[in-house]
Write a structure and sequence with these properties.
- By secondary structure, the protein is α+β, with helices and mostly antiparallel strands.
- The chain has one domain.
- The chain is built from two helices and seven strands.
- α1 crosses α2.
C-alpha cells in the first residue's frame, strides 16, 4: 500500500482509463518507484466518486479525503511505535474496516 497522487496524465479511450500515479513517500507505507502507470478497463473495473477498483489486478485507488486522512494518522501512530517497518498490511486492514469504524463513531456521537 502506498500514498500516491494522480497527475494530469489521465487518458481514456474505448477500452478504459489510464493514469499516472506519483508516489508520495510516507513513513510506514511501501516504497515503490517514483511513478508508474495504471490501466483500468471499463469492462473489468468499477468506478465511484471515492474509488477506482479492479479485482483482477488486484488494485484499488481511493479518493475519500476522510479515509486518506484517517489512514495517514493510523500509519503515523504505527510508525512512531515501530519505526522503519512497512505497515502496509495493517493499513490495508484499517482501510477495509474504515466504513464500519466511521459508522460506530457516528453512533457514539451525542445528538
Amino acid at each position: 500500500m502506498s500514498l500516491v497522487e494522480l497527475d494530469n496524465r489521465i487518458t481514456t479511450d474505448r477500452r478504459g482509463l489510464r493514469a499516472t500515479c506519483v508516489l508520495v513517500p510516507t513513513p510506514g507505507l511501501a516504497i515503490r518507484s517514483a511513478e508508474w502507470t495504471i490501466f483500468l478497463s471499463w469492462e473489468a473495473s468499477s468506478f465511484t466518486k471515492d474509488m477506482w477498483h479492479n479485482p483482477y489486478v488486484p488494485m484499488t485507488v481511493r479518493f475519500g479525503p476522510s479515509l486518506i486522512e484517517a489512514t495517514l494518522q493510523y500509519v503515523s501512530r504505527l510508525t512512531a511505535a515501530e519505526p522503519g517497518v512497512d505497515h502496509s498490511g495493517r493499513a490495508r486492514q484499517f482501510v477495509a474496516r474504515f466504513p464500519r469504524l466511521r459508522r460506530e463513531a457516528q453512533d457514539r456521537t451525542p445528538d
